[in-house]
Amino acid sequence: RERFTVMKILVFNLQGAKRAKLFADDRLENFRRLMEMGCFGELEGDPQEWNIVGRHELHTLTLSEFLAQAGKDVTMFDDFAALQTKLESGAWDCCQLNASFQAGAGSSDPYLDFDLGLGDTLQHLSDNTLLAIIGENNFVLVASNNPITGYQDGSTLDLTPTILELAGYPLPTNIEGRSWVAGMELSTASGLNEDEQAMLRERLSGLGYI
Predict the structure, then answer these.
(1) Distance (Å, rounded) from C-alpha 85 to C-alpha 63?
(2) Quick one: pLDDT band at residue 8, thresholds 50, 70, 90?
(3) Which residues sit opposite 150 in a β-bridge?
(4) What is the tens place of the pLDDT at every residue in 164-204?
(5) Which residues contact 183 (CB under 8 A, 6 or more apart)?
(6) Burial level of 61, CB count in 10 A (0-12/13-18/19+)?
(7) Per-residue b/e over 22-55, b at no fewer than 16 CB within 10 Å?
(8) Which residue from 180, 210, 209 is spatially nearest to 54, judged by alpha carbons?
(9) Angle between helices 80-89 and 110-122 (to 10 degrees)
(10) Does residue 126 contact residue 89 with C-beta atoms inside 8 Å?
């Protein structure tokens, strides 16, 4: 049976990071390089809902829970050092770094500090990594098979379906948003094998999402 591989997913969740500062600051060399490599833009909607896959009665299925249901190693971080140690191990499927850009969050220059940490982190990534940077109603998305480059806007709820499809995961039938790459030819074949898809369908069905 043919064996597929899904892309690793690395998310930087920059709570409160403003588009005007992220996109216009020439000091953020690593961030700007990623903008040139992938797609970036604005998002309409609640900035807290970017990671929602679906909602069913009183339960909300998030990106991290969806991946956990698929049997993947998902880890959250709040500092670069711990994140980079995890990345170096190679034993990960999805990592998410949460950082606050709100006033009084600690750093006197959180944007530059983030860019420096981002540069160090990029050294630990392979071509089989999808990278998403999510600010307050703005984003940058980079993946080797992403057919979209340059400016792209959409709903906050569109981001997670797009991430999942690019990374090779089957989308639930009642997913909240719409993948920007739906129907597009992706440059690399990726996905879960039949057994993994069956397991995921069974788990999502048990949660009420299929």
Answers:
(1) 22
(2) very high
(3) 39
(4) 999 999 888 889 999 999 888 776 555 787 888 888 888 88
(5) none
(6) buried
(7) bbeeeebebbbebbebbbbbebebebebbbbbbe
(8) 209
(9) 10
(10) no
* Cα-to-chain-centroid distance, residue 57: 25
110-123: average pLDDT? 95
- Give me 16's structure tokens: 């409160």
pLDDT greater than 50 at residue 2: no
Return the SS3 of 64: helix
Question: By percentage, how much of the chain surpasses pLDDT 70?
Answer: 93
Q: Sort 6 into a burial class: Cβ within 10 Å, 0-12 / 13-18 / 19+.
A: buried
